[in-house]
Structures are given as C-alpha cells and as structure tokens.
Amino acid sequence: MLPYGRQSIDESDIEAVAQVLRGDWLTTGPAVAAFERDVADVAGVPTPAVAVTSGTAALHVAYAAAGVGPGDQVITTPLTFLATATCAAILGAEIVFADVSPDTGNLDPASVADKITDRTKVVAGVDYGGHPIDAPGLREVIGDRDILLLEDAAHSVGGSLDGTPVGSLADLTTFSFFPTKNLTTAEGGAVVGLDPEVVARARTFKGIGMVREPDQLRVKDEGAWWYEMPELGLNYRLPDVLAALGSNQMKRLAQFKERRQAITDRYNEGLAGLDELILPTRRPGAEPVWHLYPLRIRDGRRRALFDHLRASGIGVQVNYIPVYWQPWFADRGYERGLCPVAETYYEGEISLPMYPDLTDQQVDQVIGLIRDFVTHQH
Length: 378
Description:
Layout: H1 11-22, H2 30-43, E1 50-52, H3 55-65, E2 73-76, H4 83-89, E3 94-97, H5 109-115, E4 120-126, H6 135-142, E5 148-152, E6 160-161, E7 164-165, E8 172-176, E9 189-193, H7 196-206, H8 240-250, H9 253-271, E10 277-278, E11 286-287, E12 293-297, H10 302-311, H11 327-330, H12 340-348, E13 349-352, H13 360-376
Parallel strand pairs: 2-3, 2-4, 4-5, 5-8
Antiparallel strand pairs: 1-9, 6-7, 6-11, 8-9, 10-12, 12-13
C-alpha cells in the first residue's frame, strides 16, 4: 500500500539521534535548546520556540499561554484535526466555528467577522494542507480588540505569506512534527510567539508550571534547590533524542519543500482538464509547503473514488471530518449545516499521497488511476 504520508529519514538523522544516546543528556539538555533556536529561526522570531511533545500539546500550551479559560470564546475552523478545537475546550472555552474559504479551505475572515463577540479571546486559523492562513484579513477583522490571532501551522513549517515566514504572521503559532509532517521529531511540536511574555508563559506551562528563576520566586532565601509553582502546568517536555532528530531534519527542510512543490505541480499537470475535479489553489503571495494534496471531486463520487484508490493499493485519506460533527460536540448542541462551505469541502475532499520520497512514477500511477476512474466509471 502506497501511504498518503511518510517520514523521510536518512543516515544523518540516525547518527544525530545516536550522538545524543551516547551523551549525557537524554532530555532537558542542549539538543532541546538548539532545536528551539532552529525553529525560531525558521519562524522568523527572536524568542526561542517552546518545544513540546506533540502538535496537540503545542495547541494546549498556546491556549493556556493566551489565558484561555471558562467564559471565553475561541473562534476556529471545523476543517481541521480535533485538537485545534478540543485543546481550547478542555480549558473551559466555548468553541465557535466559523466557515472556510472555498478556494483554500482556510478560515474565512468574513465568517469570523460575523462570529466575534466581546467574549472572543482567540481566533485560531489553520494552514490547511500547507497554505498559510489569510493573516492580514483576519487581523483586519480583529481590529483593535484584545483578541489573539493563533495560527495552527501543523501543516506549514517553512512556508510564508508575502515574504513573512509562517511563525511571524500571527501572535501565536503552533507546529507539529508528526512523521507525516514537513519535518519530523517522531512525535513533537512547538510554540512560537511575537510577545516574549506570552512565550514565557508557554514555557512555564509545558514545564509543569514550575519556576526556579530568582526574580520569579516568592521565597528568596531557601536554597539553590528551591522551586515554586505559581500556576498549574503539565509535563510536555520534548526529549533531546527527538529534538536532535528535528534539528537534523531542519537542514533538509528547503529540499523537502521543493520536492513537495514538484509533486504538487506534477499532480496539477496530470489532473488538469477534468471538470469533475477541483485542484488545490495557491493565492498570490503564498509560499506553501504542501503537507497535503487535497483533491476534490464534485460529482458525489468521493466514496467510490476513495474505495477505488484504496483497492488499487493507494493509501489515500480524507482531511477532515468537520469537527462539530463529532459526538462530543453534537451532544452539546452543535448541528450539521453550521458551516456549509466547510461541509461541502469535506464531502468532495480526498488527500492523495504526498511525501518527499514519493517518486514521479508513483505520482503518475495515482494520476492514471484517478483519470481512469473519472473518465470511464460512472
């Protein structure tokens, strides 16, 4: 079965991990600090990133650092993985779903404008498939309100919009380094931000809420062993073993990006001219790192095409089931039809194989199966 996504590991990655295993620090050591600087450099921010154990942990940490809690509203997209919404819900926030733009599948600023209230704390957009959110449009909608813009960039590390790197477009940005993502730490994630104080809160939260810095302690003279916990937190520390893998992968991020774009171009060329299909779009000024190739079929045959490709050994996927369709949200009164553009997008979407080690021959095999299905099977 040809997978829809897969990690790209080489001997230098293995050696980077082996070096850590031979050393003194398996966690909370120098490889973590180095990786946090590497992520900040790619994101274009001066403050080192906060490395965490997953993309979900990154969202939890970011929402906590933003001060999200009971009584707050978080506006987000339904066209995402569960965690974009649930990590705010678990902190007590009310989740408000806004619709997406039909071209990119990203949060639509016009829909967000209709949803903002005086209880809105965070607007959380997702770089669907790797295409950056419309950060300028969302900032215009937010205006001078005390609302943070969060970019869930699980799909898009290394991307940019109008020359600004993903990581510098929003107040807070979260990354995921799951094996299918643009670079991997096996499991892992990171948070970056424009405000050093918010980033500091994120760092404290991911470290169980503990502080040791003398200027943050209430008791000043107890001894060098002393620590305090002024706020609650969790242990979301990424170990050095995984951070070393991430730093080494970062050296090939430009290469990964180039190959993902070449695969996207090949799919676009091979699938052009079929009225039944909608191919991914790229807005002017956007430099995506294509994590997905989100093909859409218009004629109601998504399930048939999905089954046809799976039966032919092509491990396609669907990204994503609208979040509010999930039982937890349905049990709390969220109804289908809430975001019609997102639902229409979901009903036609099918994610084709996309990873740097995919060969041109394999891409052409997928194209041939789809063209055959669309043109010959009715």
